[in-house]
Design a protein that fits this description.
The structure is a homotetramer.
Chain A (H helix, E strand, L loop, with lengths): L2 E15 L1 E5 L9 E11 L4 E5 L6 E7 L2 E13 L2 E3 L32 H8 L6 H14 L1 E2 L10 H7 L1 E2 L1 H14 L4 E8 L7 E9 L2 E5 L10 E7 L8 E4 L2 E13 L13 E3 L11
Parallel strand pairs in A: 8-9
Antiparallel strand pairs in A: 1-6, 1-15, 2-5, 2-14, 3-6, 4-5, 7-16, 10-11, 10-13, 11-12
Helix pairs in contact in A: 1-4, 2-4, 3-4
Protein name (chains A, B, C, D): Transglutaminase
Pfam families (chains A, B, C, D): Bact_transglu_N_2, Transglut_core
InterPro entries (chains A, B, C, D): Bact_transglu_N_2, Papain-like_cys_pep_sf, Transglutaminase-like
């Protein structure tokens, strides 16, 4: 059963010298995001350029903002069709059956040095039976061993540092979960999203692992409902899908407000799903390496 | 004037338990690589899967090798059409005019933490006039400040570590050059290639920077002729275009032999070009952000 | 009951250009090392300089070796008086009662960045009741979580890296144990020693923690008997008590052989002690900060 | 000619739970610090414990502060006898003639991983003629290559990171200078001091290198007069001589004010000395390894 959500964000900046901004805040155009209606308002009213990344469908737009205040406001309404499965029925895909085009999500990346964490991951999770529940075990480990703590990390914090710090925010939980998956030869990628039930409301970051021919959502923070996530972008790690990347100028950061609620105004569901939640129908080439 | 080259490699392994190998050793199918004739021989004769990365045209193939010896032999002949320009006529592309689809090459990656090197790059190269010659200055700096030294680095060495070690091999020179470019907001990417005149013969790594609407070749090592490079792959850094990536098994590495010579058998040219060498015709969307 | 041991080592080098060597291989002159008889033979017969570090009693000697082979042979016989206690009776010393002269052993050092590991240590061990058994819990954690594996680390490996690598040798176990102690505000230091029962025979590294007014021995590797350790040196970490430090020349390293057995030739005791083993009588100023 | 200085500091804290503080703010008792008159006032009036480190003469005191405000005020007057020499007459001490008791100042330490910086130091300074002027060249390099910039570093920044960041404060300049010296096998140590002419007034950090049988002062920041430094402490690096180290409690940091002026009220001298400034008479064992 699809549920309708209203969501959006307002981002404020004070541009000191003309600056190019690349934004990635719009709801991705996916089969599971149906009936998307949206409005983007940029003040001042400047020209924007658009680009949608092939395959992964991230929607970027850029503006060349003149000096002065800049406000970017995004509002959307979307029906979220959740693809569910019984976790016990989802096996890992043997590496020889992985499609070659998802190989990049097995590789180490800027904030996910999975090559450095290989011994740790094998030592901690290598003995577990392959399958969806092994990734659940990784998420439980993250929840039990890493403190969710604002200010414990910064925008340069890597997954191996989070392991030492034993603390971080959603970005760090996602990076570490991805690192463990890749170290175990399970493709994994970073997901930025609007999250229903996140408190306080903000952009959220979770991760996806590739199992049984498609991508499944995981969240070691337990901060939001897996069946209430509306995807913005996916990428190797946070470097690829910052919601705002400024280039070539000087900028003062102002307020960021993010909201998400049900369109019918009904309150948040109390219970969290224990279903496996997939973000995509199986790709046609799944299972055929 | 196009010149014909003969090139190839032979890679030997002893597979201890069945292993998936992904190889990236074949000449990329580019406009500048004309008349490509090639032969790939895998012993034992096992099935292979192929994937060509969209946009960047890297050609990957994978095999699921059984236990025992594995030999991969690649032979090719190709005519290399070199695209030349006068370095003084190649400006940098202002960040507001960069196409959004090359944004990934501005971002930090596993071995190129350009975010960490931003202050260093601006301090050392920020005052130079923008343009092709600024990247040449970066290459000169690399040549003057980093020792080309086998064994000084390993497969986990990052660009910031190379800066401390003051030594490395072609991979490290490329990573550091890319890091400086990205820190200066110039898109840059890693290139693996066959290199005419490299001594001893081996795979080579150089980098490309995006200037004036297309990609140009740079090599801080001065080990090979820029106008004798035949591209295998491009990527964010070495993580993406290893010539061989084994997964899921145990492998002993044997010999790697690489060769490249002129088809007509004529000896290496003595002089090195001082032209700017581009690897691509300008993209249709170049200059339109 | 004191037991007599015979021990020693032979170190071989080939000196390529004249080199200053500082050695720290002789048995420390401590109250618990009684009846020490020893012989040091240097070939060729060159002059040596001696220095004993105040307070900690490490015995250093240096030689300025000419080009050619160098052999250093040390033989000793010593009666080891072991100071035992019931672990349950040994409390931690509250920080306000620590003598100021052991403050250096609370500080981070080259291979023990305890400041970086503070959150990890508090998260993992902070909830345990203070006392000797908390340090035993740290050693058990090391034994359970870190693989003893030659070649997993090198001479630049730090305690935080060992935590990521999940593997190391005695030096790394000691560094990590020290890091956790210091992070919990328990003074701790590195100990190099001859170890009875170590197999294969080699120099060994363990650590000491300061509890209840004196230093106690701990070993997370479980490789040797705590009541059969003859101390060579103590220091902040391995940087301070390398058994051999060459300066100012070029040296090829040859064989290192180390031996330790009981003087009466009786075989190794099978059982390991569960007593708390201290290396020193309480200092006169203990307990008076 | 000795000059009289008045100096001091006031340190304010709010202690949330009882905390042990170790302070190192008092003028060291050295031959060059003559006629020292001083007053230490702690509010509330709590008992303090004292310890002077052997050899290096650092004066530490500790207090066990109850919850509530804590103020530590130190006032002193001292006559500074400056020991000068002509830089061109000060050779390096060959490593074979270094006294063994200064060996610790050749070793890597927490914030000075000189082992990691060996290649860099040799590459940049190895070709220079040994002697005082080589250390001056290191200081000039620091001044030319590192930006003095508050906030660029933090209390965990190491010398190799400063090299990447290309920015830091006095502590970082000192760490990097020490690292280069040690990497060149020149003993070097960290110095905390009151500095005449520092603007704004604050604690200062410089470094000492051991040349020709004694210690000489160096400062890559050029922030203060070398002949107006009154030493507080020396150590391997900043880890050892923090002016305030709290243990075992929770503390809010308040204001730190530091002052230093001439006793006769005369204004700061305009010119900076170009003399070599030593902090100690030659040790009796200098030159005899």
């Amino acid at each position: 059963m699809a549920i309708w959500y209203k969501l959006g964000c307002t981002l404020e900046y004070f541009v000191q010298t003309p600056t190019v901004f690349i934004f990635n805040i719009e709801v991705a155009r996916l089969q599971r995001h149906q009936g998307l209606v949206e409005r983007l308002t940029i003040t001042p009213d400047i020209e924007l350029n658009r680009h949608t990344a092939p395959d992964i469908n991230n929607r970027y737009f850029s503006v060349h903002a003149p000096a002065g205040p800049l406000t970017v406001k995004y509002e959307a309404e979307v029906s979220l069709e959740v693809l569910r499965a019984d976790p016990n029925t989802v096996p890992e895909t043997p590496v020889e059956r992985l499609p070659l085009d998802i190989m990049p999500f097995l590789l180490p990346s800027r904030f996910v040095p999975s090559d450095r964490l290989a011994a740790f991951a094998r030592r901690e999770f290598g003995y577990l039976a392959p399958g969806f529940n092994r990734i659940t075990a990784i998420c439980n480990w993250l929840y039990d061993n890493i403190d969710y703590q604002r200010g414990a990390s910064n925008e340069q914090t890597t997954a191996d540092e989070s392991l030492i710090l034993r603390a971080g925010v959603c970005r760090d939980f996602a990076h570490l979960g991805i690192a463990f998956c890749r170290a175990l030869e399970i493709p994994a990628r970073f997901v930025s999203c609007y999250a229903y039930g996140l408190n306080p409301s903000d952009f959220h970051a979770v991760f996806e692992a590739y199992l049984d021919g498609r991508w499944w959502l995981f969240d070691g923070t337990r901060q939001a409902n897996l069946d209430g996530l509306v995807r913005i972008g996916v990428g190797r790690d946070a470097a690829e899908i910052a919601f705002c990347s400024p280039f070539g100028g000087n900028v003062q950061y102002g307020d960021v407000t993010v909201s998400m609620g049900r369109s019918d105004g009904s309150p948040e569901l109390l219970g969290r799903t224990t279903d496996a939640i997939s973000t995509e129908e199986p790709a046609p080439n799944a299972g055929a390496a």
